[in-house]
Amino acid sequence: MRVNLHCHSNISDGTLSPRDLIKRMSEDKLELIALTDHDKVDGILEAQIEANKHGIRFVNGIEISCKAQDLNLDFLNSIDSGLHILGLGFDLEIIQDIYQKRMIEKKNRIQKLVNTLKENGYDIGFHDNLVKKTSVAESLVHNGYASDVQDAFNRIINKYYDKHKDNMNVTEAIQIIHDANGKAIWAHPFDILNFVVKERIDENKVDLICQRLKVLGIDGIEVYYEIFTLQQQDFLKEMQYKYGFISSVGTDYHAKREGESTYIEVNESLVMRWLK
Hints:
Elements: E1 2-7, H1 18-27, E2 32-35, H2 44-53, E3 57-67, E4 81-88, H3 92-119, H4 133-142, H5 149-160, E5 168-169, H6 170-179, E6 183-186, E7 191-194, E8 197-200, H7 203-216, E9 220-225, H8 230-243, E10 246-250, E11 264-265, H9 268-272
Parallel strand pairs: 1-2, 2-3, 3-5, 6-9, 9-10
Antiparallel strand pairs: 1-11, 3-4, 4-6, 4-7, 7-8
Helix pairs in contact: 1-2, 4-5, 7-8
């Protein structure tokens, strides 16, 4: 069975629209797909409609960026350490409602940021387009307070805005996915995040994270991942059995590089036994 439960459209950081992503995967005769854009579900309905046209089973998905401090592990104590948690097979309306509330909270934080900047001599005004930090940075550049967007972040925004409030912790992510009747999966074990850069970790650290995730109620791990070696895959199978996890399958497809795999071929029973 050709499966990919981890791929991205241009709704987050992929290059293809949700519709074109499904069309591309239909050319390779995939049978099971999840769209897992970063912290967004805006492309799911478009992808679902296209998958139905091609007779492909479609799974609602999301990849949530999480702070990892609640795992209480020394090597994850940095404020910039994080994990990616996949949500699969959830009820879309529930997730949409949760993220709508989070967007309102973020907009309020942005408004507070704009007010704080004004108090400190950076008057850019507030308007409806200021819904994300990048918009604030662009306004700072436009008003002559910064030379470019990166300068605006480095010198001004990062001084007044706690970026970590935008990301939920691992416990919250798992709870949100479960509240929406989905499965929570640790994406690409062996890779943690150091701010936004992936950092490779060893087997001992993977095991320690699995221990903590099990306690927090995570459902599984991404055992089959395109760039992992057979040795890494075998180790993740051991983790799956050791902690009673389900195993997920994905290539982290973005359509950004030549030869990027659209699927992994696995036995149908591997995933169909835990999907709705």
